[in-house]
Amino acid sequence: MRPHRLWITAFGSFPGEEQVDFDALAEAGLFLIHGPTGAGKTTVLDALCYALYGRVPGRRDSAKSLRCDHAPPGRGPSVALEVTIRGRRLKITRSPGWQRPKLRGTGTTRENEKALLTELAPSGEWVGLTNRVDEAGEFIGTLLGMNAEQFLQVAMLPQGDFAKFLRADGEDRRKVLERLFSVKVYATAESWLADRRTEAFREQQALRKEVDFAVKRLEEAAGSALSAALTDASSDAAVEVPVEVSVEDDPLGWAHAVEELAAREVTRLSGMGLGGEAAVRQARESLERGTALADRRRRHAEALTRSRALEETAEERADLETLLEEAAAADRVLPLIQGAEQRAEAAAKARSLAADAVARALPLVDATRDVVHDRTGTGETGDRLDVGALRDDDARDRAEAGADRRHAVLGRLVELERDRRSEITRLGELRTEESRLAEIVRDRDRAAREIIELAAAQAVADSRLKDIPELRREVEERLTAARLDAARIPAAESAVEGAVTRLRAAERRTRLAADLAAARADLAALLPGVRDAFAAHPLPGQAHDVLGTRREGTGLSAEPGEIREVLAARERECGRQLAGLEGLRVEEARLAELDGLIAALGDELAEAVRQEGEVRELWEALPAEAAEATARLNEVRAAGAGLPAARARAEAATALLAAVRRREALSAELEVARAAQVETTDLAQALRDRYQDIQRSRIEGMAAELAAKLVPGAPCAVCGSPDHPAPAAPADEVRTAEDERAAQGVYEAAQERRREAETTVTVLLSRLGEVRAVAGEETGERAGETLAEAERELEALTATASAEDALAAEVERIAAELDDARTRIEEITRRLAEGRARLAGWQAERDRLTARLDGARGDDLTVQARRDRLAAEAGRLSTALAAAVHAVEVTAAHREASDRTDLAVPDATGELAEAEGVLATLRASAEAEPALAAEAAGIAAESERLRERSRELAVGLAARRTDVERLGADAERLAGRVDEARGQDPTLTARLDRLADEAELLREAVEAVRDERVSAAELVTARDRALSAVVEAGFLGLDDARAAVRSPADREEKAARLHELATESAAVAAMLADPELVAAAAEPEPDLSSLREARDAADAAHARLLSERSQAEGRLARLAALRTELAACLERWRPADEQHRLADRLAALTGGNSADNRWRMRLSSYVLGERLSQVVASANERLDHMSGGRYLLEHNRDRSAGDRSRSGGGLGLHILDSWTGVGRDPATLSGGESFITSLALALGLADVVTAEAGGVDIGTLFVDEGFGTLDEDTLDGVLDILDGLRDNGRAVGIVSHVAELRTRVPAQLHIRKERRGSTVRQ
Q1: Is this prediction's pTM over 0.85?
Q2: PANTHER family, per this entry (predicted)?
């Protein structure tokens, strides 16, 4: 691998386009890449590695983008490398993915990674190989024989990775060496032997498993009883059995002996009687009758016990009924009592609010005289309120207690509010005058501004009128010149048309000449492929010399017409052969069909053999299964007698659980309803408080607003006093009348919801009482457990009883399966015989077709390959023939064009350009004529408009001056009227606002007094309703009703207890009246245990006899079949065992696991170890010089202590230190020592790879940094070694910023770092 040129664009630290000429650098053999830290020295190697493999070394490969941040936005990153690999000159161009600007709009879009691989052909042209990223990387990796990581270790050692190959373990070192040296044949031999050993082992194990499985099945079929009886049978003269039979030594003899014993057992069991069935039936009937009698006696005894206990609870039930009735009556009147108490609280709060509202309105009463005086100018005092009396607390309390006094206060407040509303109405009429005054002032100011603007506009118009005459003269002169140029245009157009005709003729002749050259070149490029096909497969009677040596200057050995005739003849012959091969497709299809049929038939035969084994196993196992099913059927029939009693218990438990759940649901609803009642009551009270708070806040806000306008020493607008001892403070939030009305609406809605909640609670209490009468105090958990227990019992009995029909059907099914299995065995045997005969016929037919097709394919591998080759050749011929026809046509067209004109294209182009220039000038001048005429007319019109405009402006100025004088007089008149109306207030609006605030304060006081009267009336009504309800409910008074109230839990507990007693009493009475229970109590107690024991003993004896006989018959048949199968398995296993032993010995030897393998090395590792020895020998020649004769590398074939891999042994490396005479591990070397050692190893590796016949020539090495760790003497030695590489034609590039190297290495590549990015200087 030798690089020639490298192009870098917007990559890494290079923002522009940079070029590196490696050929010039490599002429000296040793060159230096230097520059400051961070300039981009390593980026050059990154670009080279990215061009080859599409990735960069180290962690930089994980970067999101490789594009230079200094590059212009539209410049994409790319690298291009021209390189020679194994004698092939290649050019690789790659572009990493980047975010490019969008072609439309703003933002960026993702540009994916791209690659282009081309090769320099012998003709000097670059031929494209691929433009796919993955294919390019795979091609380069295959050609180099290394992947990216191995290439970095051998040819390009990046920063920090010098000693990676040196310190790698055996397994990693092996991976590198396997890619560099061809050991495929040895690895294939290892793999083949290992696979063969595994395959032979699997075959032997599979066959041995078949033998062991057959023996195991024989042992399982025989059972322990027959195996134990085998020794006793040897003493019986009637049976010929060997005295000592071993299953390990003689499996077949042992199988024969077991089969003889099984036959004797069948004979013995067949003579026994089966008369136990009647005894079994009688025992079951006796047990069923005894079980039913015992259950009825138990239920009657339990009913008697419960009846005596219930007689003692009569008094308790009477007390519970009385308490529950009183609690229900108390619950009905309790909401009325609570409502009366809430009304009392509301009335007290309303009284407090009314008192506060009246107190805040009192300052306005003292100002009544001033208000009236301001309105009428008189001093009315006849209806003045006694302020001193209202301010006294005792007098206020007496006023709240008397209805007449409240009525008088209310009347006075209403009157004061009405006075202020009237004053507001009168003053509101004057607000229009105030607005009119402001409007007049604005009109006067606007008229003054218009006067200034009109005067300026008149001056501009007069100035423009002075410039109009000169402009009009210049436009008329240009219009005359444009009209003359328009008359010359027709002659110029005729000249242009003639020039265009002559140019087109010249261009067509030139284009046809280029087309002719291209057509000849295309035909010449297609002929080599056709000529190769002619040479490889010549056809008789065809002349091919026209496709031979090319003529000088034309690229073709004959004229296109001659070539066309030869190609057409060859194409016809290929078509004839293809037509003949098409006739063989039927035979090919039949052969493929036969292959599929034979494979499918083989699978069918194998499947039939498998099915035969399965059916035989089923047939042998069915007798035992039949006996087991019969026993289960008898048990199920005995379990169906207890179903009626279980159903009755389940129904009673279901009814009880439903009642308990209804009681719990109603209790939960009641709790929710009571919580809702409490919540709605609290909410209604809170909303009433909020409504009253808003009223108070509005009153307080009015007083604070008036207090904010007070000025020390100035009289109060309400009371007239100059002293202000305690002005009202402003509230945090100001309330309006809308807020008050909204709060009142919300409060009334909450009251309605409270009444609905009270009704819901009453209804739920009634329903809960009804349910408790049924469910009593039984809990849901106990009722559920009772129901679950009853259902489980019923379910178990039902499931057991429901299985009776299935078990009966099962017994019948097993009997049918026995017959079906016998029939299937016979059918499968017949199918096997037919299939084997059909297989032999198909195989003979396949052999005949194969022979016929082999004769038709000729020298090709297959008939399809011959057909594909001829089709491909026909395609190439068709393409070449089309090119020849095109060349003939273009030749004729070119001759015709040459006859028409001899004018050159440049001359015709110049003539046309001159004519078009003259025409364009004339047209531009003529096109200006309309615009110039319009401009002249516009100037005349503008002159007239300006004169008219000047006159209009003069008239407007006079009118505006008159308006200013009139508006000034109106403004003085209106200002006098507004000042008279506002009185002592700063403005008329301020006076209106003050009066509105006072009226609102008085209105709120009126509403507060009215609310207090309504609350008092509601309180009386609520108390009357509560007392009436208590008396109607039968209570002596409110205290008596409150004492009868019970909590929900207490009521639920007592109702549940009462219901429980009533339910239990009814159930006990029903049970004692049952005639079956009464009759059962009169009979004696049955002995159930004795009846069950008798039933079980009879069932066991009967089932045991049936099972033993069926098992013995099945065992005998199975033993006979298994003995035959065992003999066949042994015949197949013995040859496979011998083959496995041989394969195991060879695979162990090549895999390094055999005792005969001295080094315990695999064959491929041994070969790689020899290659490593050559690498070490080559590296030591340089390491000895670079280390001053101190260090040498040593190849260690032994497996290292920590190496657990199976393939890395034999590839170890050690360092021999001549100063100490002791071997060292490479990890103990210093940084500089590791550098020179790994460098020597890399150079030696390159030498051996180059010398290896199948290896790759690493013609250029790169060393990235590391020289800074060397002292001066060691650096001299290293440079001498690197300089000596020039003898073998190899070049070494050093990447370093060590200053001393610049004086020692003349060939240099300088990387310069700047703020806008780095550049390359060579």
Answers
A1: no
A2: ABC TRANSPORTER ABCH.3 (PTHR32114)
